[in-house]
């Protein structure tokens, strides 16, 4: 949803969508760096007030993560589509699907993930986001094994899934010619080889 009436003193239409705000923010991050970009900078460039910006994102640190909470709901649904698979396979297949994007979105996703994974000022916030993501897996594993999400198996499964994803993303970001889904599949095969499975 966008509005077309400009804010006084701003010679552009007011932006009121997550996608547009993120586009503006990432342009500023590229120009001024993450640390050098303020919420005021983003709001001004988007043609909105700081208070309006904070209705979309609780903090600057949330902007690189986009609408992450919505993607977690999709992740829960994706996990359930693999109920007929062995548990470890279901989790890994769901992780691959969670990280599957249209070809035209991959360049933007690469920029987003490079910012998240390489910006020291985002690391503490990212830990919270990773915990939310891991909790979705822990809940699923607990449901399938009749245990509690805080039990050792669900927690281990969620940590392993995150580690495989992080390793896959590291490989993907270091080589522009790699395919993300393929790298994530290779990460699981590498783990199997390491464990002698």
From TrEMBL:
PROSITE patterns from the UniProt entry: HTH_TETR_2
Pfam families: TetR_C_14, TetR_N
Keyword 4Fe-4S: no
Coiled coil: none
InterPro entries: Homeodomain-like_sf, HTH-type_TetR-like_transc_reg, HTH_TetR, MftR_C, Tscrpt_reg_TetR-type
Origin superkingdom: Bacteria
Keywords, in A-Z order: DNA-binding, Transcription, Transcription regulation
DNA-binding region residue numbers: 38-57
Residues annotated as domain HTH tetR-type: 15-75
PANTHER family per UniProt: HTH-TYPE TRANSCRIPTIONAL REGULATOR RUTR, MYCOFACTOCIN BIOSYNTHESIS TRANSCRIPTIONAL REGULATOR MFTR-RELATED
Protein name: Mycofactocin system transcriptional regulator
Organism: Flexivirga alba
Upper classification of the organism: Bacteria, Bacillati, Actinomycetota, Actinomycetes, Micrococcales
Gene label: mftR
